[in-house]
Amino acid sequence: MCDFSLEMYASRPARESEKYVTTRFPSGSIGVAAPGDCSTAVCILYDTKLNLEGISRELQIGLGVREAEQVMFARLQHGAYRDGVRFGNGRELSLQLLGPGVRLSLVGAEVAPKPTATAATRQRILEPAE
Questions:
Q1: Of 32, 56, 79, 89, whose CB count within 10 A is highest?
Q2: In a domain, 35, yes or no
Q3: pTM for this structure?
Q4: Burial class of residue 5 in the structure, from the number of CB atoms within 10 Å of its CB (0-12 exposed, 13-18 middle, 19+ buried)
Q5: At residue 31, what are phi and psi to the nearest 5 degrees?
Q6: Is the residue at 13 inside a domain?
Q7: Does 117 map to a domain?
Q8: Residue 73 falls within a domain, yes or no?
Q9: One digit per residue, pLDDT tens: the chain, 130 residues?
């Protein structure tokens, strides 16, 4: 969500319409931020689908992925840093190893649907009470 190494920074949740970039914060840790704002960590919920762009050639070869990939934001179970991504081929990578400068955006962020009235409910609303 927001790795413990970024707790000393202001943070805010990710928003569906924004673009982000992996950023090296002054502490040396890599996290997600809005371009040009390396003072505020952007927190992403685990299991959120992301579009990544600008994956380094070295990582493309090593992981068997393309320069742009759709991934899942993941909580890693190994290593000192827990925030990472899971590629479609099952490979996982810490944001620390993804490096700075990778662009990302949320894919169809989950938005709870507005409740709709059923036909029976609408009928009760329209009929006068006896």
A1: 32
A2: yes
A3: 0.77
A4: buried
A5: -140, -165
A6: yes
A7: no
A8: yes
A9: 676 667 778 899 999 889 999 999 888 999 999 998 888 999 999 999 999 999 999 999 999 999 999 999 999 988 888 999 999 999 999 999 999 999 999 997 544 333 444 444 334 444 445 4
